[in-house]
Amino acid sequence: DGGITQSPKYLFRKEGQNVTLSCEQNLNHDAMYWYRQDPGQGLRLIYYSQIVNDFQKGDIAEGYSVSREKKESFPLTVTSAQKNPTAFYLCASSILSGSNQPQHFGDGTRLSIL
Amino acid sequence: EDKVVQSPLSLVVHEGDTVTLNCSYEVTNFRSLLWYKQEKKAPTFLFMLTSSGIEKKSGRLSSILDKKELFSILNITATQTGDSAVYLCAVEASSGSARQLTFGSGTQLTVLP
Lengths: 114, 113
Prior knowledge:
- The complex is a heterodimer.
- By secondary structure, chain A is mainly β.
- Chain A has no helices and 11 strands.
- By secondary structure, chain B is mainly beta.
- Chain B has no helices and 11 strands.
- In chain B, strands 2, 4, 5, 9, 10 and 11 form a 6-stranded mixed beta sheet that branches.
- Classes of the chains: A mainly beta, B mainly beta.
- The interface between A and B is medium-sized, with 26 and 27 residues.
């Protein structure tokens, strides 16, 4: 079945450590997105990419980095510069503008600090 | 700055009740408003609204958009315990070919048996 796969489901980070969250989609979508969700809050955009080898910062990009080497994959690295990384991270994908198709989401990764 | 406000923040009802969730927005270059249901994990898509006054229905759920007053409502009739979830409202703004969503903080709905 087509969909978005995020891994791992749970991740623990030590102080000063970088960690990478995986996001893979087989929907043939051009655009991919990373969101962060904190308890009791909505989703906030970290980074997005419309095309391979190109990506743009969202509202809260500081302390995060991404790459888009393949259309299917959009990994997110949470760097040691992100001082409050504990959150639920959601990856999404969509067709580009001009369509009435919504963004589809993966099942998320919960990141915690040890 | 684009802004989406949902109310109430939380709601507790009994099975069979009807609920109305509210979403107001301020956004430049409005393109569409979306409703998602989130149960612990991935938000699942419910509705996309682009035109004022046209109700969208799916079973016991329905939604309508008012582009003049800048709000939308999501109605759920004859609620069931399986409707318990966070309901997220998001607004999409036009920005070239990018499709950026601004989310509200969600309404936590709890349906008691």
